User: Fold this.
Amino acid sequence: MKSFLTLIFLSLSFSAFCQQAPSKEIQIKLALLAAPEDQRAEATVYGYQNGEIVLLRKGSNQTVCLGDDPNREGLSVSCYHSSAQPFMERGWALRKEGKNAQEIFNTREAEAKAGKLQLPDQGSVLHALVADEKDVNWATGEAQNTYTRSVVYIPWATAESTGLPLKPAGPGLPWIMDPGTHRAHIMINPARN
Assistant:
């Protein structure tokens, strides 16, 4: 009996983290939550199908959105400037090869220094929106109690070259993350309620 209950528990736990992606329409609706409202209608949207990142909708403006990974709990979507697409696609490819976050960072750093990887344009923006699982309606594509943080790409910049601190001086204040690297960016984390 214990073995049977353990098997059921493991099956439920596994299935909770191996969810099938929502429909294309729901993925698009949720992904667009991270985009500025005036950019949503014409944004390009990527999502997930059978564990792969796929193009769900080709847009006509500068905004690209990535839908939620169904294998992770909660909602996490992002939208970014189209100049970041080669950088993002390289990260997706390295992740697919099984590389961890540090290996992906190191590979992209070396490729950027060698001029083999196109980096996001200086000053281009990424918005990342998250919500807890309990706050997402996967059937309707609606989410509440969301939190959005923003990133402004400034490749190779440092605290000295920008005057930005290495950590926020207070809620919502900008700071520089990964200074001096290909991934240097300004972080803007609004205060949470």
Q: What stands out?
A: The longest strand covers residues 75-81. Residues 78 and 130 are 9 Å apart (CA to CA).
